[in-house]
Design goal:
By secondary structure, the chain is of the alpha/beta class. The chain has 15 helices and eleven strands. A seven-stranded parallel β-sheet has the order 4-3-2-1-5-6-7, with helices on both faces. A four-stranded mixed β-sheet has the order 9-8-10-11, covered by helices on one side. Helix 9 packs across helix 13. The N and C termini lie far apart (about 50 Å).
Length: about 375
């Protein structure tokens, strides 16, 4: 198997990727994180042949890493992009947010396999990423998109009637809009199924995350938004489904363990034993519900942004990042998150997403608008 480069190495996806790589005996060629801190230092010591990048190190961390790791270490966003171009590698992009876009494109243009967990790459710059994918290989790592990808193996796209993404419903499943007015940060971070970082956990609670996944599925599988549906499936056993024109459905079922899609992305098209817990069908039940779109308006905002295209999805994602940060800082309420997104989208001047620079300028403009919208609340 190809050596692995892990972007976002100290995060949840990064740590689980390294666990899988160790078990499979895959060499680790690169490690990147935002800060030059103790977590990254421990990984650098554990993988002495890996190059190390800190995207935004503080001066003390930079000096420490320069002394400790010498030429193995490089700082800054340009070093992250260069690491993604490491020849003949599988690049696992677990960076959070739109900062992962440039490195996703760089990995693909270098002819590498991109194991994509950074959904914002496709949301903000879907046209650019899919164009770059002609030079490399793109394998989704998100559990839902890995499930769709696996269900599509051996199938013909014209025979697909629709894709069905499943949502756990998050911590507020079953609550109406009135019941969400006063919910707090701790409640929103208490996800019933997955153990994730703060931003993605809040996005799951608002269903923004599912909206991002809808846009991602549109680009990954080249299907119209009318053919991408969402249903609530609180057990999180069925990770997604594909419906075909003859009425047949293929579903991907399994335990809620992100190491499974990560391993599939590393070993594809083969499968390897993983040592994961065996799924017991006799102890499971499956239920499905419609999304309450009044209580969770962010999903329809995502559909609207996706259909508008161009830089609008980038604006959607940027506005959400700012709003979620403000909510985590207890500066705005839970329902203010979709309200801020809607306000930003209403005022966004859309352009075609013709380059990374165009996309990132739209991202910056949306962040400015979102910060102003937060201040008005």
């Amino acid at each position: 198997m190809r050596p692995v480069v892990v972007l976002g190495a100290t995060g949840s996806i990064g740590r689980q990727t390294l666990e899988v790589a160790d078990r499979l005996g895959v060499p680790v060629a690169g490690l990147a994180a935002r800060r030059a801190g103790d977590d990254l230092a421990r990984l650098a010591d554990r993988y002495p042949r890996a190059t190390v990048v800190a995207v935004a190190p503080d001066p003390d961390g930079h000096d420490r890493f320069r002394r400790q790791y010498g030429d193995r270490y490089a700082p800054g966003p340009a070093a992250l992009v260069e690491m993604a171009q490491h020849p003949g590698s599988t690049v696992v992009n677990g960076v959070v947010g739109s900062a992962g876009l440039e490195s996703s494109i760089a990995a693909l243009e270098a002819g590498n396999r991109l194991a994509l967990a950074n959904k914002e790459s496709l949301v903000a710059g879907g046209e650019l990423v899919m164009a770059a994918a002609r030079h490399g290989e793109l394998i989704p790592v998100d559990s839902e998109h890995s499930a769709l990808f696996q269900c599509m193996v051996g199938e013909r796209l014209p025979e697909v009637s629709r894709l069905v993404l499943t949502a756990s419903g998050g911590p507020f499943r079953g609550r109406d809009r009135e019941g969400l007015v006063s919910v707090g940060v701790d409640e929103a971070l208490a996800h019933p199924t997955w153990n994730m970082g703060p931003r993605i956990t809040i996005d799951s609670a608002t269903l923004v995350n599912k909206g991002l996944e809808v846009i991602e599925a549109h680009f990954l599988f080249d299907l119209a938004f009318e053919k991408v549906d969402v249903v609530v499936h609180p057990q999180s056993i069925v990770h997604s489904l594909v419906e075909f024109v003859d009425g047949s459905l293929k579903a991907h079922l399994g335990v809620t363990d992100m190491r499974i899609p990560i391993q599939y992305a590393l070993t594809y098209p083969q499968r390897s034993p993983g040592g994961f817990s065996r799924f017991d069908l006799t102890r499971s039940h499956l239920t499905f519900e419609a999304v309450d779109r009044d209580a969770f308006p962010a999903l329809d905002l995502a559909y609207a942004a996706g259909r508008a295209g161009g830089t609008v999805p980038a604006a959607f994602n940027a506005a959400d990042e700012v709003a979620v940060a403000a909510f985590l800082e207890r500066r705005i309420g839970f329902l203010d998150i979709p309200a801020v997104i809607a306000e930003v989208l209403d005022g966004h001047e859309a352009f075609e997403a013709t380059s990374i620079d165009v996309v990132m300028e739209a991202d910056r403009a949306a962040r400015r608008a979102a910060r102003a919208a937060v201040e008005r609340r």
